[in-house]
Amino acid sequence: MSTVVTLVLDLGNVLVPWHPERAFEGLVPDEDVRRFLEDVDFPELNRSLDAGRDWADARHELSAMGPWYADMLDLYLANFPRTLAGEVPGMARLVRELHDVGLRLLGLTNWSAATFHHAVPAAPAIGLLEAVVVSGQEGIIKPDPRIFALVVDRFGLMPASTLFVDDSSVNVAAAHAAGLPAVVFTDAGRLRADLRARGVPVAAA
User: Fold this and answer.
1) What pTM was estimated for this model as a whole?
2) Mean pLDDT calculated for residue range 151-175
3) Where among 38, 57, 83 does a domain terminate?
């Protein structure tokens, strides 16, 4: 008998690969892309956008560094679909199997509200999820414990029968601290094995 009733999946690099530098490929020299990403501390900038920061506010801040930086942010936003490189190998098949056996499937992602509409076109398996909690829409970002509590409360989850999957060990640790069983995602085969070990009726890899 399965110990998992609900699976809560991260999206970026779990269901859909994300490579921000691809927004600039063929448009900006690689060395300029590296300079932009480093100068603006892109991981922190992206995190603020995922947390609900307005893009116009971010653009205004970068424009103080120089017009080029604001132009690069505009280019990134305009070409955001290019950063989503298809689907993570094996995950679309696994999600379809889980959907077919009746496992409840939800998403919990750190993602800007302004770009989230690109998710399903890039990785149609995301459309099989019952719902996705998007940090940029909620104004709360993983690993903040409040976002895990939000998911549990909004969907009436029983934590003991829920499994959270994320490629970030920090987020997995935060989920554990919030009372949710969780595993670090490495690849579809490993997740499939983890689910089978918990009694979920999916095929072996």
Assistant:
1) 0.95
2) 97
3) 83
